[in-house]
Every structure is written in structure tokens, then in C-alpha cells.
Amino acid sequence: MSRNVLAPPTQRMSHNRNYRVNIVHDDFGGSKWNSANEKTAKGYEEPDLYADDDYEEDSAECNIEELPNGSFKLALHVPKSFYGGLIGFKGSTKRRIESETQTEIYVPRQNETSSDLLIQSSERSNVCAALRKIRLLIDSLRKRMRPTHFLAVPLNKGEVQKHFIELKQSILDAQLPGIDQELFISERCIHLTLGVYVLLDDAERKDAVNVLQSCRQWLVDFKTPFEIKVKGLEIMNDDPSSARVLYASVEAPELQEFADKCLKHFQTTGLCATDNNERDSIKLHMTVLNCRYRRENKNKNDRDSFDAREILKRFGDYDFGTTQCNEVHMCVLNSSKEVDEFYKTTGSLKF
Predict the structure, then answer these.
(1) Predicted local distance difference test score (pLDDT) of residue 60
(2) Angstrom distance (rounded) from CA 294 to CA 244
(3) SS3 breakdown of the chain: % helix, strand, coil, rounded to 5?
(4) Which of 10, 193, 197, 331 could hold 144 in an S-S bridge, CB 3.0 to 4.6 Å?
(5) Are 316 and 243 in contact (CB under 8 A)?
(6) Is 139 helix (H, G, I), strand (E, B) or coil?
(7) 288 within 8 A of 247, measured Cβ to Cβ
(8) Residues 248, 167: contact at Cβ < 8 Å?
(9) Cα separation of 328 and 313, whole Å?
(10) Beta strand pairing call for 319-325 and 226-235
(11) Mind listing the pLDDT tens digit for each residue in 32-50?
């Protein structure tokens, strides 16, 4: 069953860290991946498929079938983006897992309708062992992939949006060197980011929305809608003369607590982007300027920083006002240009 399949798109990890926050999604404040350990920082290293000691029972084990001939089979859903990594060069990875676990593994072809891997063996324990190794490998492959979705609180209405537009105009009117309209996030897209995820097919998107809906259980502990105060400007790095992201500070204690509960819940699903698995808390902030926006609108050779000193001097205490949060959305990254409004939404939690 060996065959060559294109590996999923990946991005090499960076060993550098930002000064204030270690992040991955640009709206969290950085344009490069940051690593939690030396191995992944220097490039991809194949996961230790023997690292099963701390493994907890996988819910998929409940779906293992015993066949009439006494052997055991498991149909395991895996997004097609992982096929290349699971098969390996000329089938080497798949053969190694089969040899180590005494199983037979069938990976569907790219043009097949089904995306279920089939794992079969004469012993149930062998199927479980193969499942563990496949899960470890998928987790490792996902860490190399670009985020596809993010959890957002929209701020594109009311006085916060009004004051954002006013600040944007005031900064542009000041004609500061190196500051132009392309650096600003669109007023129709201003938001808070509560999490970043890698969702590779309809099944994973559905799972993520279900996980989001299950976060409703914590709303009973809070007074909703959440009150949000947006005031003051800061940068993500420690050099205002060479800033990459300028953001507005957010004060929302109860939303912060709810966001951190959601973060921990999503961390148990295996759907988070690398950064979300490495952090203990969400940094609430509203992006105002980001170098990435200018590079996307003009060309990739534009400077990857801007001088924020005069902006901070003149507008550092700027008050955007207050708003309320009564919904969070699972949004598609970089989709605002497609719909010419707020980001395309996969699912929502309204309260």
C-alpha cells in the first residue's frame, strides 16, 4: 500500500521569542512561529512514537470492532492533510508503525471519498498501540501547520468602532513617517482573539464548534454580557522605534477568566495551533496596526516594522470606550477580504 502523497503545507519554526508575548497568530502579536523547545525550534524532528507511558485511553478505542475471524479493526477519521506524514517517504513511516505494532494500516487514496484510516490486527492491544502512535504523529504534524481558524469577540460596532475610526484618521492626519493606511486593521474586522486552531476538514470544524458550544457550561459562573473596556495603546515588542504590532489594551476580568477556561478546554482536543498549547492564559487585546496587513496589501518586501514612538507619545492613553460581549465566533483566518465584512464564521456561541 506504499505510495507517495504530498506532505501537508508546513512552516519552519523560529527560535526567537517576542518580548511581551510568545505567540503565533499575527493578531496575537507575531508573524513567526515560536517554539517551546530546542528540538522543534531547529526544525522538524520526528516524534518519539514510543512515548506511550503517560498515555490515557483514547475514546476511539471504544470503536474497535472484533471481526468474525477473531481479528480486530478500527476505522479512524484522519484529515487528508495528514496522509503524507503518516505514509512517509516511500511508505517508510507507515511500514514502521505496522512493524512495531504488528498491525496492517490502510490509508485511503487522496481521491477516495472516505477519510478513515483502517487499522487491523489479530490482537486488540496491537490496534490500540498503533492508534497511540498515529495520534502522536498527528499531534506532531499539526504543530507544523499554519493556523486556519481563530476564536473571536467582534468589536466592530458602537463606540469602540467609532473611536477606532477617529483614532485612525487622527494618526493618518499627523502624517507620521512610515505610517500609512495599509498598516491598520479594517474597522469592520476589529476583534479580540481568544484562541487559534488548525482545523483541516469539515469533521474537525464540526468538532471545534461542538467544543465551543460545550464552553457554555462556564457561563453560569459569570454575569453576562461581559463588560469590555478598551483604553491605551501598547506594542508587542520592547522597541517602539521598530514595532510590528500596535494594539489597544483591554480590561475585562470576567471575559478573561472565561477565555482562559475555554483555552484549557480546547487544549484537551488536539485541535489547537502550537501557541495555544504552550500558554496558560489568553492576552486580551485589540490589534490596531500590524505590519502583516501592509505586506499583504502591497508587497512582501515592505519593512516588517514601523516607528510607533510618536503614536504612543500622542495617543498612548487613547480611550476607545466600552462595549459588551454576548457572543464569540469561530472564524476563518484571512477570510475578511472574501466576504467584505467581518471574518467568515464557522460557528458561534451566543449568550
Answers:
(1) 92
(2) 11
(3) 40, 20, 40
(4) 10
(5) no
(6) helix
(7) yes
(8) no
(9) 33
(10) antiparallel
(11) 333 333 333 334 445 665 5
Query: How confident is the model over 13-31, as pLDDT tens digits?
Result: 333 333 223 333 445 444 3
- From the centroid of its chain, how far is CA 248? 21
Length of the chain: 351
The DSSP element (H or E) to which 123 belongs, if any, is none
Q: How far apart are CA 316 and CA 314, in angstroms?
A: 6
Cβ–Cβ < 8 Å for 212, 347: yes
Residue type, 308: A
> For all residues of the chain together, what is the average pLDDT?
86
Report the b/e string of 78-94 with b at 16+ CB within 10 A.
bbbbbbbbbbbeebebb
Enter the C-alpha cell of residue 123: 490482537
Report whether 132 contacts 52 (CB < 8 A): yes
Distance CA 298, CA 333 (A): 19
For residue 195, CA distances in Å to 16, 24, 132, 254 come to 21, 10, 26, 16
Q: Rounded distance, CA 130 to CA 157, Å?
A: 50
- Please name which of 172, 264, 248, 157 lies closest in space to residue 215, comparing C-alpha atoms: 264
- 208, three cell numbers: 471545534
Other CB atoms within a 10 A radius of the CB of residue 302 amount to 15
Q: Show the CA angle centred on residue 306, arms to residues 302 and 307, nearest 5°.
A: 150
Q: What angle do CA 218, 223, 229 make, to 5 degrees?
A: 110
Using DSSP, state whether 84 is helix, strand or coil: helix
Give the SS3 label for residue 235. Answer: strand
Element spanning 319, H or E: strand 319-325
Contact 197, 276 (CB under 8 A): yes
Q: Which one-letter amino acid corresponds to residue 257?
A: E
DSSP state, residue 144: T
- Assigned C-alpha cell, 318: 487613547
User: To which residue does cell 530546542 refer?
Assistant: 38
User: Hey, how many other C-beta atoms are within 10 angstroms of the C-beta on 28?
Assistant: 26
Report, in angstroms and rounded to the nearest whole number, the Rg of the chain calculated over CA atoms. 23
Please give the model's pTM, rounded to 2 decimal places.
0.81
